[in-house]
DNA sequence: AGTAGTGTTCGGCC
DNA sequence: TGGCCGAACACTAC
């Protein structure tokens, strides 16, 4: 389900509920009492990376879909929703997600410049954070939500392939122009992901993720569980450059 | 039909 | 104190 672009699709899909009053809230979440939301008006839907934010007057409900989460709009399935919001003319059902109540103003909670899909995204800020973390691996850097909020494992693999950078590089050994490309393509690929996901053609467009062969060199991709995050990483050992002084994984 | 994975948090253990 | 690791969560596409 997740990765930032999917949350953008959800945010667009629920716009009709903006400004509406929650007639009844229920669900199995233990992080808040759903009744707390009864009769409250939704002032806005926002997102930060993979976080989906349901904003009320003074409080915000944070939804994170983790690996298996899902949602249905004006539909239900057999499972009992973690959180269900019912409106005059429809309902939003959220399954298998982490729910959290935010009582502080969200501008104090979130660094909007870190969200790759936000108009407030600031690539220079991301590059500065990368420079501050020279010992971080490239594959971990892209998954770091404080730097690239919204980037997930698919986007990580595709961005590193696009920019010809080996996932095992230490950030400190990657040339400046490549760090700039990394931040640019994190955004570009996220918007490509969004477009392809809407067209139901996302998988067809994968060049590296889950692939067996490099489309540039026609040699086998390496598949390794890499980095602190220990996530599936697909890369071409020929066209994705490993810069000097790196320890090959 | 079983397995692995678009993710994060938490607690235990050095 | 803190970093690392595995478990938990809970669904579904392949």
Automatic annotation (TrEMBL):
It catalyses: Hydrolysis of DNA containing ring-opened 7-methylguanine residues, releasing 2,6-diamino-4-hydroxy-5-(N-methyl)formamidopyrimidine. Residues 2-94 form the Formamidopyrimidine-DNA glycosylase catalytic domain. Keywords: DNA damage, DNA repair, DNA-binding, Endonuclease, Glycosidase, Hydrolase, Lyase, Multifunctional enzyme, Nuclease. It comes from the Bacteria. GO terms for molecular function: damaged DNA binding; DNA-(apurinic or apyrimidinic site) endonuclease activity; lyase activity; oxidized purine nucleobase lesion DNA N-glycosylase activity; zinc ion binding. Transmembrane segments: none annotated. One of its GO terms (biological process) is base-excision repair. Belongs to the FPG family. This is Endonuclease.
């Amino acid at each position: 389900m997740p990765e930032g672009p999917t949350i953008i699709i959800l945010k667009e899909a629920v716009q009709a509920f903006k400004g509406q009053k929650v007639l009844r809230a229920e669900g199995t979440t233990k992080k808040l009492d759903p009744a707390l939301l009864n009769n409250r008006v939704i002032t806005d839907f926002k997102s930060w990376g993979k976080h989906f934010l349901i904003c009320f007057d003074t409080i915000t409900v944070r939804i994170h879909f983790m690996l298996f989460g899902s949602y249905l709009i004006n539909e239900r399935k057999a499972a009992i929703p973690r959180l269900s919001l019912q409106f005059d003319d429809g309902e939003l059902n959220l399954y298998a997600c982490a729910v959290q109540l935010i009582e502080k103003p969200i501008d104090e909670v979130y660094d909007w410049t870190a969200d790759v899909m936000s108009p407030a995204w600031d690539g220079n800020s991301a590059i500065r954070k990368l420079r501050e973390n020279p010992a971080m691996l490239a594959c971990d850097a892209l998954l770091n939500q404080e730097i690239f909020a919204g980037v997930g494992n698919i986007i990580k693999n595709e961005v590193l392939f696009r920019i010809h950078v080996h996932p095992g590089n230490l950030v400190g050994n990657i040339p400046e122009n490549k760090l700039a490309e990394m931040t640019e393509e994190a955004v570009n690929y996220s918007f490509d992901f969004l477009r392809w996901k809407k067209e139901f053609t996302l998988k067809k467009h994968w060049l590296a993720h889950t692939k067996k062969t490099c489309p540039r060199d026609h040699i086998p991709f390496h598949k390794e569980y890499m980095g602190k995050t220990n996530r599936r990483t697909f890369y071409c050992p020929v066209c994705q450059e490993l810069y000097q002084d790196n320890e090959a994984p």
